[in-house]
Automatic annotation (TrEMBL):
Keywords: DNA-binding
Name the UniProt record assigns to this protein: Winged helix DNA-binding domain-containing protein
Domain of life: Bacteria
Keyword presence, DNA-binding: yes
InterPro entries to which the protein is assigned, alphabetical: AlkZ-like
GO MF annotations, alphabetized: DNA binding
Length: 291
């Protein structure tokens, strides 16, 4: 990310830089909640301190920036500690003022002012243009989406579609529709349980016939696939769940189980295991467990 700048990080997610000009108009309107707006106004001097520190000394870790907040916000969910710097940095990132420029060796975020992180000379769009283009990009990524889904806001992008047995209004990407009869390549992907594709559960169920349940918050005795199991997507089908975890201490990818919804064909099994091998290589660790 920090080398070729093809991606940028926001709210813990990596986005292609081509999305940034479409997102910036909405980022500049943030925040929408009055309580956050009041906190930023009360801490305007703190806000300016953080920006000035980054501009003069950045890139910096959050811990290298003094907490000069006049008003502290409590963290009811325990997500934030008493230090207000991480909260302010995230607020400024959502406004497009600062950005994550790298990750440290310990995977901590390294921050800098946005003009030194984001590419220069990006196109600028009005709010209306940006919203329309964002909706089109979301639909291109989804292929088909509920028109009014809070997870994939596509509005009137694309064309109307009907999903048999569904009560929802759907929109489909014309390019995806044109490829509907093409042979699927069957590529294997392991989805993070928090992947955006999985957020709209009715869509996953009605389009892919996959009833996904995140078992992270279930008692161990009630888990079927594992604490943080990854859905396995093969082409356009969900075929199983991968229960695997990265053991950083021992530098291995530990595969606890590979669950199939229907018995894998030998070729499918080979593809899945090859993808696991590739994941371990990408992570730069060894592989233990099911082979």
């Amino acid at each position: 990310m920090e080398i070729d700048r093809l991606l940028f990080e926001l709210d813990g997610r990596f986005q292609p830089v081509s999305m940034l000009p479409l997102m910036l108009p909405g980022m500049r309107r943030w925040p929408r909640h009055e309580s956050t707006r009041q906190w930023l106004e009360a801490n305007d001097a703190f806000r300016r301190d953080v920006i000035a520190r980054l501009r003069a000394e950045g890139p910096l870790l959050a811990e290298q920036i003094p907490d000069t907040a006049a008003v502290a916000r409590d963290s009811a969910d325990g997500w934030y500690g008493p230090n207000q710097v991480p909260r302010m940095l995230e607020a400024l990132a959502r406004q497009g003022v600062v950005a994550v420029t790298a990750r440290s060796a310990g995977r901590r975020r390294v921050w800098d002012v946005a003009e030194r992180v984001f590419p220069a000379g990006m196109p600028e769009y009005s709010d209306e243009e940006a919203e329309r283009m964002l909706a089109e990009r979301r639909l291109q990524a989804a292929g088909i989406a509920k028109q009014n889904s809070p997870w994939t806001c596509v509005r009137d992008a694309g064309e109307p579609a009907r999903v048999e047995g569904s009560k929802w209004k759907w929109r489909v990407d014309p390019e995806a529709l044109a490829r509907v009869d093409d042979e699927v390549d069957g590529r294997v992907a392991f989805l993070n349980p928090y992947d955006g594709m999985l957020m709209d559960r009715p869509r996953i169920s009605e389009v892919f016939e996959f009833d996904y349940v995140l078992e992270q918050f279930k008692p161990k005795s009630q888990r079927r696939y594992g604490y943080f199991a990854h859905p396995i997507l093969m082409g356009d089908r969900f075929v199983g769940m991968l229960d695997a975890e990265l053991d950083r201490k021992n530098e291995v990818l530990r595969v606890n189980a590979i669950h199939d919804f229907l018995p894998f064909e030998p070729e499918e099994d080979d593809m899945i295991r090859a993808e696991i091998d590739e994941l371990a290589r990408w992570l730069g660790v060894g592989l233990v467990g099911e082979r």
